[in-house]
Amino acid sequence: MSNSERLSFEQALSKLEDVVNKLEDESISLDKSIDLYEKGIELSDFCTQTLENAELRIKKVAEKQANNNENE
């Protein structure tokens, strides 16, 4: 995904769902299927990275909160 294409997680997930639906259409050409597959991989990687980053942020907040509770 290009840097100029700034999507939210929800937008990327929606686009990924669109790609999957299009890939299920048996009437599309092989070339179009390959293009869609590549786009789907990019979107999937973006969604995975976004979720991993969110998980790290949540862990940091939880650790900070736990440390604050220990110091009280």
From TrEMBL:
InterPro entries: Exonuc_VII_S, Exonuc_VII_ssu_sf. One of its GO terms (biological process) is DNA catabolic process. SUPFAM superfamilies: XseB-like. Residues 6-71 form a coiled coil. It comes from the Bacteria. Its EC number is 3.1.11.6. It is found in: Cytoplasm. It catalyses: Exonucleolytic cleavage in either 5'- to 3'- or 3'- to 5'-direction to yield nucleoside 5'-phosphates. Keywords: Coiled coil, Cytoplasm, Exonuclease, Hydrolase, Nuclease. The keyword Coiled coil applies. GO terms for cellular component: cytosol; exodeoxyribonuclease VII complex. Bidirectionally degrades single-stranded DNA into large acid-insoluble oligonucleotides, which are then degraded further into small acid-soluble oligonucleotides. Heterooligomer composed of large and small subunits. PANTHER family: EXODEOXYRIBONUCLEASE 7 SMALL SUBUNIT. This is Exodeoxyribonuclease 7 small subunit.
